[in-house]
Design brief:
about 120 residues; mainly beta; seven-stranded mixed β-sheet; 11 strands; about 0% helix; globular
């Protein structure tokens, strides 16, 4: 499955951005899509994930209550709505996908989109 991410940019602290990730295939049953991010000088980390069926969502503690992951099956797209952004949210954000269940381990995701840069200024 090919993934295409978009929506990054520059925003002030407290602001909002929405990232999108379009998948190249329909009928992605048993597929989980997620977002990871990598800040300068840091390891890539899990942010959020959602089943293609939409039955469950998962979040890193650092973004709970501020970020919302959702999907639009008709558009083969998932979204990451990011509110109350903080400078520490600055990172390159990557969407990723895998079959057969949720994981927060990036090594278990086989499909990756290109990164999109999110910069939050203080």
């Amino acid at each position: 499955v090919q993934l295409q991410a978009s929506g990054g940019g520059l925003v002030q602290a407290g602001g909002s951005l929405r990232l999108s990730c379009a998948a190249s295939r329909r009928s992605l049953s048993n597929y989980v899509m997620g977002w990871f991010r990598q800040a300068p000088g840091k390891e890539r980390e899990f942010v959020a994930a959602v089943w293609w069926s939409g039955r469950s969502t998962y979040y890193a503690d650092s973004v709970k209550g501020r970020f919302t992951i959702s999907r639009d099956n008709a558009k083969n797209t998932i979204y990451l709505q990011m509110n109350s952004l903080k400078p520490e949210d600055t990172a390159v954000y990557y969407c990723a996908g895998r079959f057969n269940g949720y994981s927060d381990n990036e090594d278990l995701y086989g499909d990756w989109g290109q990164g999109t840069l999110v910069t939050v200024s203080s």
